[in-house]
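ok trying this again, last paste got cut off
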Amino acid sequence: MEKFSIDAFDEFFNAVLKLKSVDECRKFFEDVCTIKELQDVSQRLEVAQLLKDGKNYQEVSKITGASTATISRVNKCLNYGSGGYNLVISKK
């Protein structure tokens, strides 16, 4: 797989920042991502919120249908990642 440049990522992120509404975001991401990718990303955010709310892995899995591997990965990001989940959750 070809390595992406930081510039390519920044161009994508800048495109996202230009979107002004949920409807615009939906249209863009439905074109850019598959339905499965959108479901997976949305699920991860829901998992992060539930973990921040103090739910345990079993509760999170039951509510979201996420695997323990996904829950563990999200939890690791919450605790040791770059702070993206916490940033978004704090703005809700």
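PB: full thing came through this time. Residues 1-32 form one domain.
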